[in-house]
Amino acid sequence: MGQLLGVAMAFPLQGDNTCQSIAPTPIPEPYWVGFSSLLGQELGIALNESGLPADPLWLDVLSGNTLATKEHAFSNPIATAYSGHQFGVWAGQLGDGRAILLGDIGPYEIQLKGSGITRYSRMGDGRAVLRSSIREFLASEAMHALGVPTSRALAVTGSKKPVMRETLETAAVCTRLAPSFLRVGHFEHYAAARQTEHLQQLAEYLLDSHYQECRDGDDPYLSLFSAISRRTAELVAHWQSLGFCHGVLNSDNISVLGLTIDYGPFGMMDRFQMDHICNHSDSQGRYAYHRQPQIMHWNMACLAGGILPLLEKRYSTEEAQQKLQTALEQFPNQYREAWLRRFRAKLGLLEEHANDFALIENLLELMHQNRVDFTNTFRLFAQVQSQADDQTNPLRDHFIDRQEFDQWMQSYLDRLKLERLSDLDRQSAILNINPKFILRNYMAQRAIELAQQDDFSEVQKLLQILENPFAEQPEHEAYATPPPKELEDVVLSCSS
Hints:
Elements: H1 2-7, E1 12-13, E2 16-17, E3 19-21, E4 31-35, H2 37-42, H3 57-61, E5 78-80, E6 83-86, E7 89-93, E8 99-105, E9 108-113, E10 128-129, H4 130-145, E11 152-164, E12 168-178, H5 184-192, H6 196-209, H7 220-242, E13 244-245, E14 267-268, H8 292-311, H9 317-328, H10 331-346, H11 356-370, H12 374-380, H13 402-416, H14 423-431, H15 441-451, H16 457-466
Antiparallel strand pairs: 1-2, 3-5, 4-11, 6-7, 8-9, 9-12, 10-12, 11-12, 13-14
């Protein structure tokens, strides 16, 4: 990827370049805030008995203060330009305003977020703060443990360097990794600039490196679009099944590998609300929970616009548009199939039956009306006995409207009669797909507040708990509880 970005993307655009070779800006007196020893081991980094890198130079590398350790050297760090739509409005050129790509490590690109000003910082200071860096670090590894395609986070390093946001905060750098950080916005950027040659190089790179199966079709570029769209449909269905809200689904925040990237004002829902908004900057609810599938479909339309010039090399504009439109229309069906598959599994249903969609929708409506905890409710389905009396059902006390719940539960028990699994096997299946532990906002906030007092123990403790989200971990039972009433309905801003 570094070679492609360093060569193919370095072309003039309105007097500017779309790739900048730039070293990170050092931060004074860096220190470890959090480190993923599991990911470090995966990358072959030698660790000491505390689970931190044995080579002390890693602290400086992951803080942006140097570019080499005894094990790895990063000789050509870069920042890239991309464009995109923000809250549905074309924003023009954007780019890595505070993220610098160091190069490759293992199967990943390694990027420092918060490592200083780049050509694309616009009015920003190029920095990230401790608060948001801890949240992205924990969320990335928690989502990975849940099986969600995502960027990873290796570390957070901090500094006492002051950074002004709504209030005065301190600087931090989050080290994140992904097989590629390419976005829908990269395609939009080249298409808007009418740089078809560079657009083609970008598509060829993706085909060679991440979508080789698309080479076999009659039209690799059309196949590439369809594959990206399908991965995206699967991703948003996975989000919905976990109650995950991204918060800022602008087209420049959408991975073309079907990964969850750019954790900002995200949130895992506690009490279920169909229309939950996790970003207080989203006054219209554009990126609310129930609108995420629609918005991701819209972003695939943005991608189609970015890929259109490649198809126009082979077809007329009208033919190219029609082919992309036909491929784009597959998204709702792909999403529905993935959504049904995931929610069936959450309820311990392996068979497919015509009324399953209505059964699941009715449950979600009931959960919405009764504002039950999303994660714990689905986990409790493991305790349902197919022959149990409604009055002893472990879920019943979580619903205010008992009559409506009893009616729905009878439908579910009738549906279980169509399954071949025993109660014991179904229980195991449910526990393996419905997590006990998620990154709840109030728990992340507690870790952040302690870190702001130079106590980073809660960051590491939360990380270790979230690395095993499906295990019972009875010693950490308190971390599976919903927030106290005064900490419910937390929303966050884009500012970080």
